[in-house]
Amino acid sequence: MFSFSQTRSPQSKVGEQDKDENDNLLNMLRESAWTMGEPVLPLVEPDLVGIWRKNVWWFGFRWPFSMVLFSWVTVASTLAPEFHLDRYLLTMLAGFFGLVIGAHYIDITASKDKYLPYFPKMNRGAVRTVGVLAVLAGMAVGVYMSLLYSLWFLVFVILGGFFALFYPIEKPKWLHTYPGFGIAWGFIPVLAAYYIQGTRIDLVGLGLAVFLGITVVEMHHMAVLTNEKEYGADLTKNARLLLKIHRTAAYSIGLILLISRLIFTMS
Predict the structure, then answer these.
(1) Virtual CA dihedral for 189, 192, 196, 201, nearest 10 degrees?
(2) Distance set, CA 207 to CA 38, 141, 188 (Å)
(3) Which range, of 10-24, 131-145, 206-220, averages the lowest pLDDT?
(4) Cis peptide preceding 81, ω within 30 of 0
């Protein structure tokens, strides 16, 4: 009886050789790092590198992805019929506490098996407590904005707080899915930022929220494909490149629109 290995094509053998070479190179790098006293772990997140990996508190900000969120919030704020700098800054502050610190810190502690090898000295209780307090602080800023500008904004505050607290712990299960991520990290923040500027929602704002909600899912999937435990070197490399292009596009359009709005406001 013939085994599968006996009937492989020359192309598959070449692919196996390339894979073996990549594995050998990775093993050489790991052995070199071990001799220096620093174990090399496969990357499970694209931002688990460089300065971001030095400290769990610093990594928890997830700056590369958080800046994309801020960029889309900026796009929504600047494309609204009106633009108020004070409302924009308060929106960013609420997002910084609720999503950047709060949701990310809770996510790190909820995914302890994923991040613990990288931060073995992590104090999960302290990180989780800071995360919950940050979400509450973000909601407090949102309540202040509601009292100041529109009570209808409380709807976004409640929804945003709910997603920030429960998305990371995957309860309920449907929340921690691609549609759930798109709603929590794209649709709701973008629509909230658009609404608070002119305290109204139109088809432009709704369409923008839907588009950016789908866009953040695309970004999230590219991040998933950088997991070196699950995927090969070529795929993870290309996924990281696409993420860099995606981030550059988000940063650029957000910055350009903000500058143009500020210039128009001051003129």
Answers:
(1) 140
(2) 48, 26, 12
(3) 10-24
(4) no
Query: What average pLDDT does the chain have?
Result: 85
Token pair, residue 126, equals: 């302290």
Type of residue at 191: L
Give one word for 170, left, alpha or beta, with left for phi > 0 and alpha for psi -120 to 50: left
What CA–CA distance (Å, rounded) separates 13 from 46? Answer: 30
CA atoms within 13 A on the CB side of 265: 13
CA distance 86 to 190: 17
Say what the pTM is: 0.81
| pLDDT(114) > 90 | no
Whether 100 and 161 have beta carbons less than 8 Å apart is answered as: no
Query: Of 95, 104, 169, which Cα lies nearest the Cα of 131?
Result: 104
Planar angle of CA 229, 232, 238, nearest 5 degrees = 115
**Residues in contact with 163: Cβ distance below 8 Å, sequence separation at least 6, in sequence order:** 103, 175, 180, 183, 184, 188
Largest CA distance in the chain: 82
Residue 91: which of 168, 133, 153, 159 has the closest Cα?
153
Helices 63-79 & 203-224 angle (0-180, nearest 10): 170
State the DSSP H helix or E strand holding residue 43, giving kind and residue range, or none if neither.
none
Helices marked H in 111-168 — which ranges? 112-115, 124-148, 154-166
pLDDT digit string (tens) for 160-197? 999 999 988 877 888 888 999 999 999 999 999 999 99
